[in-house]
Design goal:
alpha+beta; OB fold (Dihydrolipoamide Acetyltransferase, E2P); Arc Repressor Mutant, subunit A
């Protein structure tokens, strides 16, 4: 079984996920990923984007939200702890670490850690971080970097020759504000990485200042059943996957609940069917 925690959460644009191929590793020897110019395999990603839409099913078993970072749109889907979606609001700016998945041609994200961001200046900082990262791994040329940096500067300071910015803040004060944002990001970055390391299965950490609602009593049981199913699949796997019927017979829970979670594991990419009637953990 692949250890998901070994995969880095790369800071990228949404367009990087949509404009590069999603590779499915059918033999189970590795993790499905986005292949960026044969230089980067992206399994986990970190995106800074705005919430433009959110949805929750009436039965409370599924929720999603659409994110826009200015380069594209992507959906975030949650099947277990859906409060991570419900507690965000339209137009929130969020910083999210998530696993990249694909289903029926749609690339989407399964959330692990999420922070609601109050400082919009972090958008500029993140754009610069992404450019630096792309330059380091050789997937962007110098000319493109210079154009992107010029564009970012113009967006944030269109009157570059004036002493003051549009809101009356001096350039030196603006630079100081960005510097403070860098320090804030470094602190938040450490917190998010630590939370991501602790997340497992359907557990999702939401880092924000808003008051947290109490978890429902059924949630721990749901997580436990999910873990039991994954462990049973691995236990019954003879190398060619575990028979789904055997998994259903071995789990002492209502068949419909077990089937529902198995379908979720398949749709989110945690498991796959090597052949009809068999299921295998990636």
């Amino acid at each position: 079984m692949v250890d998901f925690n070994m995969w880095a959460g790369y800071k990228l644009n949404i367009s990087d996920l949509l404009s590069n191929p999603y590779v499915k590793v059918e033999d189970g020897s590795g993790q499905n990923h986005i292949n960026i110019k044969d230089r980067l395999k992206v399994v986990r990603v970190r995106i800074l984007a705005q919430v433009t839409f959110k949805y929750a099913s009436e039965d409370g078993n599924y929720a999603s939200m659409t994110l826009d970072d200015g380069t594209g749109n992507v959906r975030v889907k949650a099947w277990q702890n859906i409060k991570v979606v419900l507690e965000t609001e339209k137009d929130d700016l969020i910083d999210i670490i998530a696993m990249v998945r694909e289903w029926n041609g749609e690339v989407y994200l399964v959330p692990e850690v999420l922070r609601i961001v109050d400082n919009p200046e972090l958008k500029t900082l993140r754009s610069l971080e992404i450019l630096r990262f792309k330059k380091e791994i050789g997937i962007i040329d110098k000319e493109t970097i210079e154009k992107e940096i010029t564009s970012i500067k113009n967006q944030n300071n269109p009157d570059a020759d004036d002493t003051d910015t549009d809101d009356g803040t001096s350039k030196s004060e603006s630079k100081q504000s960005v510097s403070e944002s860098v320090q804030e990001l470094e602190i938040k970055n450490d917190e998010m990485i630590e939370s991501s390391k602790k997340s497992e299965g359907s557990k999702i950490d939401v880092l924000k200042d808003r008051p947290e609602t109490q978890d429902t009593e059924s949630e721990p049981e749901e997580k436990t059943l999910r873990v039991l199913i994954i462990e049973m699949i691995e236990k019954l796997d003879d190398g060619d996957g575990a028979a789904i019927d055997d998994v259903l017979d071995s789990i002492k829970s209502p068949t419909k609940d077990t089937e529902s979670i198995i379908n979720e594991l398949l749709s989110e990419g945690t498991c796959y069917e090597p052949r009809a009637g068999k299921i295998k953990v990636l």
